[in-house]
Amino acid sequence: MILIVILVFLGVFVVAALLMVATGSDSSQQAKLVLARLDSVLATEKPEMSDLLVDVRKNELMSSIPWIDRYLRKLELTPRLRRLLYQANLKWTVGGLVLMCMAAFIFPAYLIYWRTGTIVLALAIGAGAGFLPLGYVLHKRSKRMSKFEEGLPEALDLIVSALRVGHSLNSALGLVTRECPDPVGPEFRVAFDEQNYGLELKTALENMVTRVPVQDLRIVVTAIMIQKESGGNLAEVLEKTSQVIRERFRLKRQILTHTAQGRLTGAILTLLPIVLGCALYILNPKMMSLLWTRELGIKLLYAAGSMIVVGGLIIRKIVNMDV
């Protein structure tokens, strides 16, 4: 029975792959032709022009499969997932992320159901496994946002130095795009290009806040907008803003140091029952199998899993402090 299911799955997978290749070949040829025409018009073949040109061709493809792409465009959740992928600096498509989550949900759930025969436990473990691709995206996004926060004061120092020697704010933003590493430089580059293409400074900065939802960046944008409306010395305002951001960052690090013991305690208390259960199953499988072969054991598993999740969330709420 299992062999038949595996063969059916492999057959469906091969047919779907062949359809993807067949439907994607024509579109890829057309895309290459269009890109070649754009490159010839923009003269990107010249090395001296390649550094001056900005690629304004945005790839809005949700999935390489046409019907999945059309379906994802109709969902309201799609723009949020696309923004998450952009903020995480991943080259995935929304369709690829959805398919990975579905695959990570289906296979563990089927294996657990085949092993235990309990559909609720299979769905719970499958749901946890299906969240792993999205959790990886959120992890990459969090690391990139933290890196942006660390590099923002240095970018503000460059802007302050440029303003004090007589450059305009637009020229100072251009200096940040050339001198600051990723992710600060590329994000300021987008805002700099949007302003050069005709957007107002306020709109370009608000778009950057939408792309990078960092509290420190909101402070900087608010300071610039207030200075534009009321006047004053922008260099001095940004210098004080940089000092405030550094103090917030120092305070945040200090809070992380003080709450390290609580976070470690939460991790140990959450993982200890799982590790202990696996160890007991290795030592005595017959005894531990009572938990999923009898009705009382299944109820105990549900209760224990619920209490672990609730306890972990409570500890996380206690140790997480907003600065």
Topology, please?
Blueprint: H1 2-42, H2 47-50, H3 66-74, H4 77-87, H5 94-116, H6 119-130, H7 132-164, H8 169-179, H9 184-196, H10 201-211, H11 215-230, H12 234-258, H13 260-283, H14 285-288, H15 290-293, H16 295-319
Q: Can you tag this structure with a few keywords?
A:
about 325 residues; about 0% strand; Receptor-associated Protein; disordered N terminus; mainly alpha
General description of the model:
Helix content is 82%, strand content 0%. The chain is mainly α. Among the domains are: 75-130, no CATH class; 145-247, Up-down Bundle (Receptor-associated Protein); 259-319. Helix 7 crosses helix 8 (169-179), helix 8 (169-179) runs antiparallel to helix 9 and helix 9 (184-196) runs antiparallel to helix 10 (201-211). The protein is elongated. The N and C termini lie far apart (57 Å). Residues 1-28 and 41-57 have low confidence and may be disordered.
Write a brief caption for the model.
This protein has 323 residues and is mainly alpha-helical.
Helices, by number, come to 16
Number of strands: 0
Largest beta-sheet details: none
Q: How would you spell out the order of helices and strands?
A: HHHHHHHHHHHHHHHH
